């Protein structure tokens, strides 16, 4: 498959500036998504080695990854196209690996999942990697439910739920925990909400975290609750609601919830 020139669609755009503007402006973010849609689809096709459209589940994965890239982008991280490409590719590859792990009938060498399937410029995918991707493509071709449409519907529904709290679904990447200890702390806070109906109801009634009560119930410091309040609120709403697609991105909390 022909490789995508890294900056061919960005040459007439100050894409780094636009990406920074999109971090704080939903309109700017939507415009950026619209102008870069074909580029994202080409990355999907490049990674999966098949033609991808916005009706495929890979598109919803790329869209979420693009949001993540925008919200976590800083000028010192280099050119935005290169940064976003890495984020999107990693998310797509994570999904491919996840599908493989749940399909025991695919017998390939585990080492095929140690790298990035040779999708960077100048690399050629080995035979095992191509076989894996071919089988994954076959697996995803049959479902009657459109995963991309389901993801779009869930995002739209989450937007409506989160709006009264004063933030957007697309604000979450900015407040998402990055360090392991912080992720663990946020997980404890979300679990405390989900396991305490009174706290969850109070959050929904006041459209804010019940800081004092949650600090006591979870043992998480107030400064962490305040810094990551959007993430904690959204995670609690998503995991306590009907959002199966979005809930997949909160797997570490779901796992802890079952223990």
Could you explain the architecture of this structure?
The chain is an all-alpha fold and 259 residues long. The chain is 63% helix and 0% strand.
How many structural domains? Answer: 2
Instruction: Count every beta strand, where a strand is a DSSP E run of 2 or more residues.
Output: 0
Tally of helical runs: 14
Largest sheet: none
Q: If you compute it from the alpha carbons, what radius of gyration comes out, rounded to the nearest whole angstrom?
A: 20 Å
In terms of topology, how is this protein built?
Elements lengths: L14 H8 L3 H23 L8 H16 L7 H22 L25 H13 L7 H16 L9 H4 L4 H15 L2 H10 L4 H8 L3 H6 L1 H11 L4 H4 L3 H8 L1
Question: Quick gist of this model?
Answer:
The protein is mainly alpha-helical and 259 residues long.
């Amino acid at each position: 498959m022909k490789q995508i020139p890294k900056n061919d669609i960005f040459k007439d755009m100050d894409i780094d500036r636009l990406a920074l503007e999109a971090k704080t402006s939903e309109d700017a973010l939507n415009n950026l998504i619209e102008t870069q849609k074909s580029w994202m689809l080409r990355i999907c096709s490049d990674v999966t080695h098949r033609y991808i459209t916005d009706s495929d589940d890979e598109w919803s994965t790329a869209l979420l990854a693009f949001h993540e890239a925008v919200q976590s982008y800083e000028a010192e991280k280099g050119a935005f196209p290169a940064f976003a490409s890495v984020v999107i590719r990693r998310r797509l590859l994570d999904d491919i690996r996840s599908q493989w792990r749940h399909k025991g009938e695919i017998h390939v060498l585990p080492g095929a999942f140690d790298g990035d399937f040779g999708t960077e410029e100048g690399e050629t995918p080995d035979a095992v990697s191509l076989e894996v991707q071919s089988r994954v493509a076959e697996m995803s071709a049959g479902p009657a439910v459109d995963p991309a449409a389901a993801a779009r519907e869930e995002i739209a529904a989450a937007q409506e739920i989160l709006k009264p709290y004063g933030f957007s679904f697309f604000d979450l990447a900015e407040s998402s925990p990055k360090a392991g200890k912080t992720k663990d702390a946020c997980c404890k806070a979300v679990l405390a909400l989900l396991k305490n109906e009174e706290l969850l109801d109070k959050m929904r009634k006041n459209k804010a975290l019940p800081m004092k009560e949650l600090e006591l119930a979870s043992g998480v410091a107030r400064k962490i609750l305040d810094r990551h309040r959007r993430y904690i609120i959204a995670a609690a709403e998503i995991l306590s609601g009907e959002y199966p697609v979005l809930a997949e991105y909160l797997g570490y909390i779901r796992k802890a919830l079952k223990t």
